[in-house]
Amino acid sequence: MSKTVLKSAVVFSPAPLFNSFKHFTRFFTNDNYFLQGLTADQEIITTGSIDAPHNQFSSRDLSFLEESISDAAKVADFDSVKCSSDAVSIINAVRSFNDGLGEKSHRFLRGFREKLNENLVVDVLRNVRNVELGVRFFMWAGGQIGYTHSTAVFDALLELLGGDGFTDDLLLEIKKDDCEVLGKLLNVLIRKCCSSGRWNLALEELGRLKDLGYKPSRVTYNALIRVFLEAGKSDTAFLLHREMSDSGFKMDMRILGCFVQFLCRMGKWREALSMVEKEEVRPDTVMYTRMISGLCEASLFEEAMEFLDRMRADSCFPNVVTYRILLCGCLNKGKLGRCKRILSMMIVEGCYPSPKIFCSLVHAYCKSGDHLYAYKLLKKMVDCGLKPGYVVYNIIIGSICGNEEQLPSPDLLELAENSYSEMVDSKIALNRVNVSNFTRCLCGAGKYEKAFNVIREMMENGFVPEPGTYNKVIGFLCDASKVEKALLLFQEMKRNGVVPNVYTYSILIDRFCKAGLLNQARSWFDEMIRDGCAPNVVTYTAIIHAYLKARKITDANKIFEMMLSQNCPPNVVTFTALIDGYCKAGDIEKACAIYEKMRGNTNAHDVDIYFRISCDDDDGNNNKEPNVITYGALVDGLCKVHRVREARNLLEAMTEKGCEPNHVVYDALIDGLCKVGKLDEAQEVFAKMSERGYSPNVYTYSSLIDRLFKDKRLDLALKVLAKMLEYSCPPNVVIYTEMVDGLCKVGKTSEAYKLMLMMEEKGCNPNVVTYTAMIDGFGKTGKVDKSIELFDEMISKGCAPNFITYRVLINHCCNNGRLDEAYGFLEEMKQTHWPTHLANYKKVVEGFSKEFISSLDLVGEMGENDSVPFVSVYKVLIDSFQRAGNLDKALALYKEFSSPSLASFSDKKVCSSLIGSLSASGRIDEAFELYSDIFGKGEVLEFGVFVDLIKGLLKVGRWEDAFVLSERLCYMDIKWLSNEYTPEKS
Description:
Layout: H1 3-7, H2 15-25, H3 63-76, H4 85-97, H5 103-110, H6 118-127, H7 131-142, H8 151-160, H9 168-177, H10 179-195, H11 199-211, H12 218-230, H13 234-246, H14 253-265, H15 269-278, H16 285-297, H17 301-313, H18 320-332, H19 336-348, H20 355-368, H21 371-383, H22 390-401, H23 410-425, H24 432-444, H25 448-460, H26 467-479, H27 483-495, H28 502-514, H29 518-530, H30 537-549, H31 553-565, H32 572-584, H33 588-598, H34 628-640, H35 644-656, H36 663-675, H37 679-691, H38 698-710, H39 714-726, H40 733-745, H41 749-761, H42 768-780, H43 784-796, H44 803-815, H45 819-832, H46 838-844, H47 850-855, H48 859-864, H49 871-883, H50 887-897, H51 908-920, H52 924-936, H53 943-955, H54 959-971
Helix pairs in contact: 2-3, 4-5, 4-6, 6-8, 8-10, 9-10, 10-11, 10-12, 12-13, 12-14, 14-15, 14-16, 16-17, 16-18, 18-19, 18-20, 20-21, 20-22, 21-22, 22-23, 22-24, 24-25, 24-26, 25-26, 26-27, 26-28, 27-28, 28-29, 28-30, 29-30, 30-31, 30-32, 32-33, 32-34, 33-34, 34-35, 34-36, 35-36, 36-37, 36-38, ...
């Protein structure tokens, strides 16, 4: 082979190595054989200072070192690679002879004929680093008897030549030396291009192979078909297969499997079966599995299941891979119904999905909303010998509880709780997100004890809580009014070494302020400052708002001053809280002044305390411009004091300012207009609200329906109700109660009762206010039996009657002469539902309309009495027993009524009436005892009481006593009260 031909190939010359050697050996010349830095300057002895040694070194004397170093350098090239010593010897020899693998090299190589094998030739070709020497060595080795080039040798030669760095001249040179070797080499080159995915280059080399008169081998055809299938070149793959068949070759099973899978993926499963038949191959499990995989990728699931049946018919049974491919194919395409069938089939046949597939299945079924089946999969995992773990449990609980907009149904929450219980037993922890979401759902379902225990139980399973986790759970408990649980969790948080941050304190302070627990909120405020946790604007705003609502203006201003002193400027939320707080404290003028100041009105000077510093943010924007929440608070405050005209003007003003009113603003204004009876204006605002794109909600409808019933416009009320149902806005218990009460007030008790039954059917349970309104309605129509029956029914359904309920029932029993039953209800009330404090009493009447409370004469009592207002109940009963002639019972009730513990509730009217009744019945001594008792308490009775006493004395013949009492009246210095009581004429 000529050197010209070899030079056209890629050549790696060893010249740089020898150049390095020349630079290295220069230190050993006669002129400079000392290495700088290895000896001190004073140790370098020059010829001028002392006599030189007798025997001096020359470069010839060091020649043995040069040869030694040269040999070492040559060997060093192969120390870094795995190369045999024979290969090293051959490479060093052919390099050193430098005869282009001529006669001298051939003589040397003859000694390695017996050792010649594939590994030796590969080592030499991979390490010779000289194309000329490598090709000549390849050709020499191929001509040796007993040795044949293998694929590994061809690969090594291709690597030496740069993979595809052939020229036609080089190929002709190799062909001239051994034409058969060239054909093998080109086949290897094609396969090498295929293995690297270079199908275009492989096609070029195939053309060159054919041009040189060679044919591809079976292995080459298989490689070509594979690479074209992978590249999606189906037409070329078909042509190659036809050419391969014409050449008498058959595809191997692996490539045939790839081909039929490709055809199935294209939906050509019939062609795939035909190809298998032509190849005269009996499909095995692997090939069927490949075809099923292709059908699944093409979403041909019916055909895939048919192939499964065909597979069994050919006595070829699916394995776990077959089922997993089917299962994953259906899963990826969302065919969850088929997944259930396939999963059951594979488990029956002992083929179990992997934990990863189970997790994917659980996730898919949870995502589709089939949480029940997703939970059943946990049991199937156990049946398959797998243990559900961290991922799958968190998938289920996260899917059920992850929707922050809506709570899960009771059934779904039960599934989440069951999963959680299994996690606790298995020592598996929830992730941080699911801890928060799960506790939120538990609180929403009223399961506060479970929610409270979640963090502690998860910590036992390795969960490491952070302040944010505690903050969320504490917030959920506070929102559910379970402040005692929130407090315990806060204490547990500190015991566990988790330091509360400003958000923790802000949540607690805000929620406790809203719950009316201002003292506890203030103690936390002081605690956080003491512990070095600086309050933020949210913290300050919450406590200022609470102080204002409690009418503690001085305390609120002190906190505001502290806020400013700590360089914490108020924002629009703070000013909104000030407005809302003053509205709720009854100081609507101050609230309006703050609003005017926010708008830039400089005339409002009495609120300057709140505007001493600039409230602009970092971008220079005004941070105290009223927003929709600000307007909403002021509109609501104005409506609460019936200043609806100003509220409506405010609505117009905010629209002009470009602040779009929201649902809350419209609802507040509609409610305010309804409360003052301006129904027409309320309907105008209602229409405007609808025009703005806001759909009325249950609160909007509640205000309108309540007003319509009070105005006895039942026809319009029913139309509004129909409209409400039309917009899929189901009435709540408040609306149902308003309607029941309204119907009762106009005497339509039958319709009211039917409505109450209907609300239960619709899943809205009546509350104590609903039952009380209905009981009152029956009582007013004389149906006391029905009232008592309904009273018993409400107790049986777990709805406890309150003071108002008893009062209504006792009134109606007395009015209908059923005094014993009335007295029984009084005794029952005292033992079970007797309010013990005014605050409790006010809580009892919450939910009842003012009109309803006024009809029972309770408004005055609530204002006059400092403690339990039960005067009216006793008054009704005493009066009723008097009228019935049962003075003993009336007198006993009065003594109980005026006992020392209840003395503050003695009533002069009741006493005067009872004295008159006793006198008229001849029980004059008891009448005088009663008079003495009330007189001893410093009470002054009406003049008519003395007239009754005198008449009583005369009735029993005690004329002298009557005369004495009459005489004393003339000399008594008594300022008589107006005689409101007129005794009956005897």
